[in-house]
Amino acid sequence: MKPTYLVNVQILRFFAAALVVFAHVGVEVGNVAARTGRVFEEIGLIDWGLGVDVFFIISGFIMYYMMHDRFGAPGAPVDFLRRRLIRIVPLYWICTTLMLASLVAAPQLINNNGLDLKHVVASYTFIPWPRADGELFPILSLGWTLNYEMLFYAIFALVLLLPRRAGLVALGAAFILLILTGILVPDRLFMLKFWGNPIIGEFLLGTTIAALFLDGRRISGGAAVALVVAGIALAVVFFQASAYEHIWRLVTGGIPAALIVAAAVLGPPLRETWPARALALGGDASYALYLTHPFTIKLFGVAGAKVGLPLGAIYVVGLVLTVLVSVAVHLLVEKPIGQWLMRKTSGPKRAVRAAS
Predict the structure, then answer these.
(1) Which domain holds residue 330?
(2) Residue 338, SS3?
(3) Residue-wise DSSP of 265-304
(4) Rounded to two decimals, what is the model's pTM?
(5) How far apart are CA 95 and CA 139, in angstroms?
(6) Dist CA 263 CA 227 (whole Å)
(7) Radius of gyration of the chain, Cα coordinates, nearest whole angstrom
(8) How many angstroms from the chain centroid is the CA of residue 270?
(9) Do 71 and 115 meet the contact criterion of CB atoms below 8 Å apart?
């Protein structure tokens, strides 16, 4: 990857994670307010879950960008899956285990309806399975997005067995078939219903943007700004009109997110100044930020309520703490584990490259 491309995409990843964190910090501050008899109103400008849509599109972009020249290559599917699993699984398992321990130790602080062995196993294996309340969320509820990511990885690894053109046709056909299946099957077939949610089409939007990028398509800085503004404006309109209630999220979230991602990828590269590098580090830690922020804000919310901090202070300091903790987790936990696993699972030549 070119450094300029890395900076653009990593900064966008940080902001995508920050949108999700912003929403969840607001929810937790609202919980603190309810417990302490105070009043707090969340900022309801857009659906802050737009960050998830951005992540899905970036995921599709990254996969095709990194593997576009390896369709039909020997060992490509295995190498792709190895890298993706090393990237995703270790930190998710750690955070899932922490959430499981929290449910056992302090169930009154966690919004969960009890534990079930099948649900626990499904949570660790990225299989959508209903909780006691019937919702298809894993133990660490944020993991619902990773259940989709694993679907993306499995399908993409299979189409890597084919020549590129045939692989891309198979990729599109597989997702269309899944969406049609999800629409047609009864609710009791909840796995197919989950995996066939039209939101999976956002992955294809990402691969399309990657194809444009690899074809040399670029836009001016002014056009990039216009795309970002259009994406945000559409997200606001869709949310304020409650379009999420009756229109596919592929439309209400996917289209605004695709405009924003296209602007970041196809627009001029950012100069690598120190603010850009700092934000790119936040992007490096975006996965850690996504997974760890519920723990950080929950603990800080409890502590802040006990010492009587103003709700605004809990909100602002909580946001800052989630970022600082995520960077520490990325540097001290996620990155070392990933590097170690890459060395252990690579051949001798690849191990040398991974270490360097």
Answers:
(1) 3-355
(2) helix
(3) HHSPPPP--HHHHHHHHHHHTHHHHHHHHHHHHHHHHHHH
(4) 0.93
(5) 10
(6) 6
(7) 21
(8) 23
(9) no
Cβ atoms of 270 and 11 closer than 8 Å: yes
Contact 240, 187 (CB under 8 A): no
Residue among 113, 119, 115 nearest 138 (CA): 119
**Sign, CA torsion 302/303/308/309:** negative
Mapping DSSP to helix (H, G, I), strand (E, B) and coil, where does residue 105 land?
helix
Query: CA 189 → CA 64, 118, 182, 249, 250, distances in Å?
Result: 30, 16, 9, 21, 21
String of DSSP letters for 139-191: SSGGGHHHHHHHHHHHHHHHHTTS-HHHHHHHHHHHHHHHHHHHHHS-TT-HH
Tokens of 309: 């901090």
Q: What is the pLDDT along the chain (356 residues), one digit of tens a residue?
A: 344 556 899 999 999 999 999 999 999 999 999 988 888 888 888 999 999 999 999 999 999 999 999 999 999 999 999 999 999 999 999 999 999 998 888 776 666 666 789 999 999 999 999 988 889 999 999 999 999 999 999 999 999 999 999 999 999 999 999 999 999 999 999 999 999 999 999 999 999 999 999 999 999 999 999 999 999 999 999 999 999 889 999 999 999 999 999 999 999 988 878 899 999 999 999 999 999 999 999 999 999 999 999 999 999 999 999 999 999 999 999 999 999 999 999 865 554 344 33
Among residues 178, 167, 156, the alpha carbon closest in space to that of 81 is found at 156
Total number of domains constituting the chain = 1
Q: How far is CA 211 from the centre of its chain?
A: 21
Question: What is the distance between the alpha carbons of residues 333 and 338, in angstroms, rounded to a whole number?
Answer: 9
Asked whether the beta carbons of 55 and 13 are under 8 A apart, the reply is: yes
Could you give the CA distance from residue 231 to residue 54 in angstroms, rounded to a whole number? 11
Contacts of 303 (CB under 8 A, 6+ apart): none
